[in-house]
Amino acid sequence: MKNLIHILQFEWKLLWRSNMLKLLLVVMLGAGVYGIFFGKFEIEKQNIRIAEVKEYEQGRFDSLLTWANLDTSILANKEKYLKAVSPEGVGWRLHFSHCIVNEASPTAGLCLGQRDLFPTYYRINLTDLARQMNTAELANPMKLLTGNFDLSYVFIFLLPLLIISLFFNLYSDEKEKGTLSLLQAQAISLNTILLDKGFLRLLTVWAISAFLLVLGFLIQGVSIANNADIFFQWLLVIFAYTLLWTLFMAGIVALKKGTAVSAMLGLGVWLITTLIMPALLNLFVSANEPLPNRAEIIHAVRAANNRNWDSPKSFVLEKFYEDNPQYSQEDTTHFYKWYYASFALLDKEANTIRNDFNTQINKRNKLIKKWEWMAPAAMVYEHLSKISKTNRESHLHFMEATHDFHDRLKAIYYSKIFAEEKFNQQDLRVIQAMQRY
Amino acid sequence: MLLLIIKKEILAALRNVRLQIAGIFLIALMLVAVLLGRQGQQLIHKEREKAQSAMYDIWVNQGMKHPHSAAHFGQFAFKPKPVLSFLDVGLDNYTGTSVFLEAHKQNEILFSAAQDSNAMIRFGEMTMALVLQILLPLLIIFLTFNIFSKEREEGTLKLIYAQGLSMRQLFMAKVWATYVMVLAIFIPVICIAYFLLDYQSVSMDPNIGLKFIGLTITYALYFLVFVLLSVLISAFAKKSSISLLSLLGLWIVACIILPKATANLADKAYPTPSQFEFRNTIREKVKNGIDGHNPRDERLNALKQKVLDQYEVSSVEELPVNWSGIAMQAGEEYTDKIYDREFTRVENIFKKQNRLSEWVGFINPYLAIRHLSMAFAGTDFDHHTAFARAAENYRRAFVKKMNKDMELNHTPGIAYGDYNVGKEMWSSIKPFAYQLPDLTSILSKQWRSVAALVTWLLGLFFIASIFSNSISKI
Q1: In Å, how far from its chain's centre is CA B71?
Q2: Best of A124, A143, A150, A387 to disrupt the B interface by mutation (most B CBs within 10 Å)?
Q3: Does A134 sit within 8 Å of B107, measured CB to CB?
Q4: Mutate: best of B116, B239, B349, B372, partner A, most A CBs <10 A
Q5: Taking CA atoms, what residue in B is nearest to A357?
Q6: I need a surface site. Which of A116, A146, B2, B152 has the fewest CB within 10 A?
Q7: Is residue A140 situated within a structural domain?
Q8: How far apart are CA A431 and CA A100, in angstroms?
Q9: DSSP string, B202-223
Q10: What is the model's pLDDT at position A84?
Q11: Mean pLDDT of A258-287
């Protein structure tokens, strides 16, 4: 134990006094702080946009509530009143749309993940959902391709480079400087000394990554106390990843090769695990597993729509009553009942195809998952974005929530349409409470 | 003497086991990338072609309908997979793949591959371009980092100098020797790629041969830039380790860090508007006119008066043509103007962002080759907008035809449901056929990157010719 502390002390002095470490730390810190601020700006931009949408939607809904209270004995108020209380959407060009928002999680700014590929909100109305969800946030594909310089990027790509540069000459430096024989002459075995040297470096790496993580939470204004679980999950993933890299480097040092060869080997491992393997996996999957043609959903919906319009009203309504016995009525000619029931049929059609597509995509992604261990960098990225709720799955959850929201909206609207009733204040409040913002 | 030196350098490298392994590894990687890449390109191309013709069949066989109902029924445009995209996949995983074309509305091109993939996709797809742009420069670094320092350490530099060879000649000999080795790796694989070109789909891709040659030449230039740069640094570095570290540092900054930082900076410099703002602007302008003082009702009334005057009648019912058809087409043309304005505005912002990174090509040659390579392969942003434009023009043409038919043949007094046309009408709309931009259009857009590469090359030759004689011999 005494020896260990002794070696650590002196090794630290050596490390610190060689300007190499200082330079590397400065570069690492610089990149880290840049990444933290970049993530902060990026997520703030998203949040501002979400706030804009929310404010707009709030305003629209508030006016709906006022209109529902208008005195209809005044002719001028009649139109607005009807717009507010008609479940059939009287007076609107394309019905009244409701909004559902996917708020960023507190640490989304540390790992922006896949969030930039997807819309952060949907505005939907009573009509069929499939066509309304076909929106995308405006984004320069060049930026999407290049990706984000956030803290997770610094940890995943740059931290291993720090580890490589700290470890590659662990043995060869002593040899090339001629100090190796001095070490070999010590009472402590060379292996112990090398292990201690490696241990010190690992501690240094852990210290700087923990420091950057704390800095990230502080700069982005995320309370560590309130998000302790997220903080420790991040810490755990990064410590494990750096440990893995330390082991890679330990293996390379154990080969006892010269400085240049060790550096090249380290870089080679870095290239293979962070660049080549993920890229090869992507190539393999895209060459063998085609993606579903999503235009099929739009086509199925328009074809079903065509069929609905070409058939007598009873065709749609009978099918609808079969699926939704709670509305069961004899009425098979009412225009609005027919009109909205036909959208429910479109939703049903679209959902079948959507489920097929999801199965196909899951199969494809499972194939990647199966080989993910070959690319630890991608694994870590997947984990961090999962912790920060910025991965694709989080968006799929949001899409499910949107489907659910649409179903609940339909339930309220349909119960009124089929009872041939209008909304009252209470109904509107219920709907307002359902919107997630 | 020069040839002798070149021969010596090549022999020395060929006998180096590590370089052998690295070279073979790169060649194998490129072969896998080319073969699998082509397989994937074919797969996607066939799928999209199939989807496109299936959707056209549905359009033709949609049965008897009112032309305006048919315009609402709509068509699809699928983005063809460019022939050369197997060499550089570019933006293809991040741009949409198909667009629904319907009356009244310009839809976005949707469904990118990235949206359907998990996080792995963000690590890029292996293509020949990735190997050539990022990995081959590393091989160049390993070939050259000790090309001078080793001789200096072994004392052979002095001996060569004593043979009467100037340092400038020696420098150039080492440059050409390295370059020959790089080309020896590059050329066989690019030749194989050439024989794998899909000649069946060449009809959609004009000048494919020239584009291929352009791609090859640009890469050859890029390698020369990198060879010159690394031999130069190696010549002036005091020790092998210093030259290796500085070269690797440069590589990491140029190929890994700077591209990301540049793209992020471009987004800061020219902020992308939000979808919300974009859609609201369009809605607002459709409603109140482009200038905000020309609401829809007034536009319609003015048009109605004009048409009534033209036919010298006093009401819509007396018109010999269908008023709704005229009104709808006028509405289309008005919204088209708004769509053009707004879509172009966003496009221009993206173009400015990309242009910034093209200019940075003068600082970082990696960015120059990246843009050029994507452009030749048909997978850059300009190709995406070209497709979007073609699809939109197709939409406008067929919607216009539907409106025109309604105007002329749907005589007033006949109910909407009673005027129907059929297959003859639908098949008079030709299937959507998109041709990629030709070589001149690519070069006219990519001149910055070309200029950046040429500047790098000339600059490095200039620096080498001035300073190479002062390379230290000991």
Answers
A1: 31
A2: A143
A3: yes
A4: B116
A5: B116
A6: B2
A7: no
A8: 12
A9: GGGSTTHHHHHHHHHHHHHHHH
A10: 77
A11: 89
Q: How confident is the model at residue B292 (pLDDT cuts 50, 70, 90)?
A: low
Whether A363 is covered by a domain: the verdict is: no
pLDDT of the residue at B293: 67
pLDDT in tens, B181-219: 899 999 999 999 888 887 777 777 888 889 999 999 999
What is the Cα–Cα distance from B416 to A163, expressed in whole angstroms?
A: 74
Measured between CA atoms, how close is B311 to chain A, in angstroms? Answer: 32
Does residue A319 lie in a domain region? Answer: no
| pLDDT recorded at residue A76 | 77
Coil vs helix vs strand at A121: strand
Inter-chain residue contact A261 with B18, CB threshold 8 Å: yes
Write down the H helix ranges in B410-471.
Answer: 423-427, 439-445, 447-467
A395, closest residue in chain B (CA to CA): B115
Which residues of chain B does A364 touch, with a Cβ-Cβ cutoff of 8 Å? 116-117
Q: What is the pLDDT of residue B304?
A: 81
- Judged by CB atoms closer than 8 Å, whether chains meet at B55 and A295 is answered as yes
Q: In whole angstroms, what is the distance from residue A164 CA to residue A265 CA? A: 9
Q: What is the mean pLDDT of chain A?
A: 85
Domain count, chain B: 1
pLDDT tens sequence across A133-164: 888 888 999 999 998 999 999 999 999 999 99
- CB B36 to CB A52 under 8 A? no
Contact B40 A291 (CB under 8 A): no
Query: Which amino acid belongs to residue A78?
Result: K
- Of the candidates A38, A142, A280, the beta carbon closest to that of B353 is on A142
| CB nearest A146 (choices: B76, B259, B381) | B259
- Name the residue among B74, B119, B120 with its Cβ closest to that of A302: B74
Structural domain total, chain A: 1
Count CB pairs under 8 A between chains A and B.
215
* Dist. CA B307–CA B314, nearest whole Å: 10
Which segments of A172-221 does DSSP mark as H helices, in order? 172-177, 180-184, 190-219
Structural domain includes residue A223: yes
- Domain around A191: 2-8+152-207+215-286
Task: Residue B348: count other Cβ atoms within 10 Å of its Cβ.
Answer: 12
Q: Give the pTM.
A: 0.89
How does DSSP classify residue B347? Answer: H
Tell me what the mean pLDDT of segment A111-131 comes to.
88
Pairwise CB contact (< 8 Å): A53 & B276:
yes
Structure tokens at A261: 């060869």
Q: So what's the pLDDT on residue A437? A: 54
* Res. B248: pLDDT tops 80: yes
Of A139, A141, A364, nearest to B384 by CB-CB distance is: A141
Question: Structural domain of residue B237, as residue ranges?
Answer: 2-412+421-470
